[in-house]
């Protein structure tokens, strides 16, 4: 995937970005593969397969919202309810989540922003129990965030693509609420990109290579990895000695 240029209309052209919000699943942590594996196992019982067009509709949403999409789109809702689907996949996911690895470039970027005093947070559709399992090997990295907003937060009435989670995140920065035009969001999921734009924020999309490119159009910039991100493009402090900081 090519590194796509920024939309000239982006407020970041004026060096307006002061705060950063990260999605988590599929962006900072390589957890999307776990959901795919479990959903393939469940669908195999019904002689159905799981594909990326369905995956794209589920990514980034709250668990129950994604579950409804899953059972309805696959035509198994008469046999398996969304609620029962969540119960069934839970046992498998709980064993997988603690093994979560970091996605390329995330640690480097987070440390760089932290060292340069750029306030950051995470806004993730995942709920607290799953968040704790997914991040248990990476607690030091996530401790660099000013705050974390999860999908089960009472302020998040609707999941992505509703802007709720990003607006809640903007409110909780020190001195908040922060003007959405001063916030840069990093996302991998189509629903998350839409949520960020619906919140009035700029968004860098780092999609899975298997995601149809038609989903790229809404984002202000599209990268194949966080390693490709150039902070200076957005008026943020440049990387120094970047080749020696690939952690």
Give start-end ranges of low-pLDDT stretches.
Answer: 8-14
The total beta strand count reads: 6
Figure out the total of helices: 9
The mean pLDDT is 91
Determine the oligomeric state from the structure.
single chain
Helix % is: 25-40%
Features:
9% strand; 247 residues; alpha/beta; single chain; 6-stranded parallel β-sheet; globular; 34% helix; 9 helices; 6 strands
Notes on the structure:
The model is unreliable at 8-14 (pLDDT under 50). With 247 residues, the chain is an alpha/beta fold. The protein has helices at residues 32-44, 52-58, 63-73, 82-96, 106-115, 128-135, 139-142, 164-171, 190-198, and strands at residues 19-22, 120-123, 147-149, 183-187, 202-205, 221-222. It has a six-stranded parallel beta sheet, with helices on both faces. It is built from nine helices and six strands. 40% of the residues are buried. Helix 1 crosses helix 4 and helix 3 (63-73) packs across helix 4 (82-96). Helix content is 34%, strand content 9%. Strand 4, helix 9 (190-198) and strand 5 (202-205) form a beta-alpha-beta unit. The protein is globular, with a radius of gyration of 18 Å.
């Amino acid at each position: 995937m090519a590194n796509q240029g920024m939309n000239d209309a982006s407020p970041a052209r004026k060096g307006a970005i002061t705060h950063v919000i990260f999605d988590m699943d599929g962006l900072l942590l390589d957890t999307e593969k776990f959901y795919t594996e479990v959903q393939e196992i469940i669908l195999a019982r019904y002689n159905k397969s799981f594909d990326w067009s369905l995956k794209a509709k589920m990514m980034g949403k709250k668990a129950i919202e994604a579950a409804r999409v899953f059972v309805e789109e696959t035509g198994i809702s008469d046999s398996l309810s969304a609620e029962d689907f969540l119960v069934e996949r839970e046992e498998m996911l709980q064993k997988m989540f603690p093994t979560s690895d970091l996605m390329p470039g995330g640690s480097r970027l987070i440390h760089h922003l932290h060292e340069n005093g750029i306030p950051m947070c995470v806004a993730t559709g995942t709920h607290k129990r799953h968040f704790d399992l997914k991040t248990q090997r990476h607690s030091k990295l996530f401790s660099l965030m000013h705050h974390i907003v999860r999908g089960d937060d009472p302020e998040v009435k609707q999941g992505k693509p509703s802007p709720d989670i990003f607006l809640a995140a903007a409110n909780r920065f020190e001195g908040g609420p922060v003007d959405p035009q001063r916030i840069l969001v990093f996302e991998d999921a189509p629903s998350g990109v839409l949520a960020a734009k619906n919140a009035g924020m700029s968004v860098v999309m780092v999609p899975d290579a298997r995601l149809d490119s038609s989903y790229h159009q809404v984002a202000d910039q599209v990268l194949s990895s966080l390693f490709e991100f150039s902070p200076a493009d957005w008026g943020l402090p440049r990387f120094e000695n970047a080749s020696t900081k690939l952690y």
